[in-house]
Amino acid sequence: MNRNELAKGIYNSSHLSGSFTLRSGQVSETYFDKYLFEANPRLLGAIACELALCIPIGIDVLAGLEMGGIPVATALSLETNIPAAFVRKQAKSYGTCKLAEGAEVRGQNVCIVEDVVTTGGQILLSVAELRAAGAIVEDVVCVIERHPDGRKKLEEAGLKLHALFTIEELEAAGNVEDVALSGEGWSD
Fold it and tell me: Region 119-143: what's the mean pLDDT?
């Protein structure tokens, strides 16, 4: 699957219209239901293949953020052979009491993996906690960059965002007529 087919597949499988309140509190008339493309093995595999090219050299651990970043980080780990960690929104209060499960993050070059970036708010919170746990975090990869404010906030915090697609790229791909890619087989 080439990059244009992937963009069209993501758009066709996950683009919704209506009135949606985003995590940031913003209201949008369009929404990309990330779980629809993350649950599709064909799309998730193609996403991992393309997103692997965005991972900077020298990364030791891929840190998927709860909840949408976890399937992407898992697929990326399978594609790249880089170990994965799964980062909770807050450390659990029982058992291991860890913030990050899976691969060890202390002293490691960690790349944050997220599905959609709008404001970057949760990323900034998680990065602060990972750094406090001893992780070295400078890079973030995502499938969809929804709004440039997120990139700006991440850059202000010393983070580099590597996005597979911007929202504009997905919308452009979704507005191209192509009967062969009209959605058949994309959301089995």
Answer: 96
